[in-house]
Amino acid sequence: MKIAIGPACGRALAISAAALLVLAVPLHAQTKTGARALAVQPSPPVTQFIVSFRDEVAAGERVAMTVPRVDGLSKSAGAQLLYRRPMAALAHVFRLRDPLPRAAAESLAVRLRQASGIAAVEIDEYMFPLLEPNDPSYADATVERMWSLKAPTALRAGGINLPTAWGLTRGQGAVVAVIDTGIFNHEDLEANILRGHDFISADADGGFVVANDGDGRDADPSDPGDWITADDKTKPLFASCSERNSSWHGTRVAGTVAAVGNNGTGIPGVAYEAKVLAVRALGKCFGYASDITDAIRWASGAAPASGTWARSACRATPIRRR
Fold this sequence. Notes:
Low-confidence stretches: 1-25, 27-41, 135-139, 307-322
CATH architecture of the largest domain: 3-Layer(aba) Sandwich
């Protein structure tokens, strides 16, 4: 699928494969019918909510976020909420002063939805890359590692027959936004990489443990690694995460999309003459849904990189789909 985003929002950008954000799921997804899930494990405490207000939605622009408005929201919630920042589409991120177990957070969300003046409320979910199996035949790169790109055979029926497709197009002129863990320098990628933005916000306590790069949002989507150690697992934020080495997941996905082809090095990407816009929204173990949402909108040209909006009248409406 290819979606062309019109220039009305200030920057035209073609996004193929729907920004590849299907590579992430919320940790509690196993409770939702039809969702793909990670292994069952306890959900970390909820720290943030995404809230929209009726007056802003009706007016199509922001209203000043005053102390009385925040206090009123806290009163309706029955818990102290602290204002963090505006989001795209006239939404706002609020932080709980005291994190809550998921069941209590869902009850709080229900109370807020029933309050006057509230248009929508959702938990700011932790989003995780999908599980990849470690079975030897799956993980061993020496076993027919490129068969999936070739024409199907009686033995390998799943090949996507790229040689035939490459005779028609190799992706020249397309830009694919990969919203993932960021990008790591690699000789077989650099010529096709456009460095985008890092959208990982500070943790609820103001630190940058999830970001793992010492700061918040900025214009550097480099991937510093997302390893989890035994010491990390002693922290409540990572208690439900698995110990692992860094995944370099965003770099791997970028290579699948557009590793430089026909250059005698490494592998060819599926569209090896396309460009990849590398956008970082997943940090150590997970990323926040609010950061991922802002990253999608920024990549499609719908919002500035600062992540703050005085207005959100722009509509990122697909104008062509195939």
